[in-house]
Specification:
The chain has 284 residues and is of the alpha/beta class. It is 44% helix and 19% strand. A hairpin with a 2-residue loop joins β9 and β10. The structure holds S-adenosylmethionine.
């Protein structure tokens, strides 16, 4: 045990906290990232006036305050880095190849519905980017379509920011200037997303480790889950991918982050290779 330095986490406290976090949300903190818990939870310990990580674990697990603490824990352990038009070459494939194909398929079947699910949407830049692309592709045809973008995250606080829809120019650093002009209102150096784009996106809290919540998501034509499964272990990745497979309609497409892979995780999806990356399909 590590006695003496309250800023350091003892071996057994680390294991207990790690297992607790994993059981709650599937995020796995490897041994070499122990400092991450120490750094990120230091303020929570101070605010709650707790003497160490052992006390924090018992507070989380047994104290009457644990219900309020869980969302706070999610807030501190998640990494919410994101931006508009992140990974532009992948989005180009989405805009020029995948989306037109799926729209055409739905048009032919006589149902002008499009459902996109942004799982792990953080502060909203990803789902709003998808809304912009859908608008750019459908153009004047948009009102004839029932377009819905479901955007979920584990952390309530990022969803608050997503619903407000006001961003810094840093969030827009890889967004083409004409797109910024067309879809944002600049007010005192901040950029507010247009209301008609906002109305395409529905935000909600969802834990990808919660089977019941996952079953409530309407079936999707396209799923974006980028830079999220990188924080999961293989077992959680498999559960998540299997839920995505069940959720997608036949012929539906899955986009994951450029540093992520389904190798060893899922053989059910059919990978298709494009210059901007791999897109995974559920076969018809
Ligand atoms: C790095 S951000 C990625 C945001 C966006 N998809 C992108 O690529 O720019 C990862 C997000 O996944 C969310 N996340 C992590 N574990 C989750 C879980 N079990 N359920 C739902 N969201 C989760 C985090 O809260 C965080 O906002």
């Amino acid at each position: 045990m590590n006695i003496g330095d309250p800023g350091r986490i003892a071996e057994d406290d680390f294991s207990r906290l790690r297992d607790f976090i994993y059981a709650q949300c599937g995020i796995y903190i490897p041994d070499n990232r122990r400092y991450l818990l120490e750094n990120r939870l230091a303020n929570r310990l101070k605010t709650l006036n707790l003497k160490g990580f052992g006390e924090y674990f018992f507070y989380l697990k047994y104290d009457h305050g644990h219900r309020q603490e869980l969302p706070r824990l999610f807030e501190v352990i998640t990494t919410n880095e994101t931006s508009f038009f992140r990974n532009t070459s992948q989005l180009k494939v989405f805009q020029e190849r995948i989306l037109p194909g799926i729209l055409e398929k739905n048009r032919k079947s006589g149902c002008k519905n499009l459902h996109i699910w942004s799982a792990g949407c953080s502060t909203g830049e990803e789902p709003y980017t998808l809304a912009i692309i859908v608008r750019e592709v459908l153009k004047l045809e948009l009102p004839a379509w029932n377009v819905r973008i479901t955007a979920n995250d584990l952390s309530e606080s990022v969803l608050g920011a997503a619903r407000r829809g006001v961003y810094s120019d840093y969030s827009l650093r890889t967004t083409p200037k004409d797109i910024v002009k067309k879809y944002f209102i600049e007010e005192a150096g901040r950029f507010k997303i247009h209301q008609d784009l906002k109305s395409l996106v529905t935000f909600g809290q969802l834990n990808l480790n919660d089977r019941m919540q996952l079953k409530m998501v309407p079936r999707s034509d396209i799923i974006f889950c980028r830079n999220v499964i990188i924080y999961f272990d293989d077992a959680m990745k498999k559960r998540t991918l299997s839920a995505f497979y069940d959720n997608l309609v036949p012929g539906g497409a899955l986009f994951i982050g450029h540093s992520e892979s389904l190798h060893h995780i899922s053989r059910t999806f059919k990978p298709t290779h494009h210059p901007g990356g791999i897109v995974y399909f559920k076969e018809e």
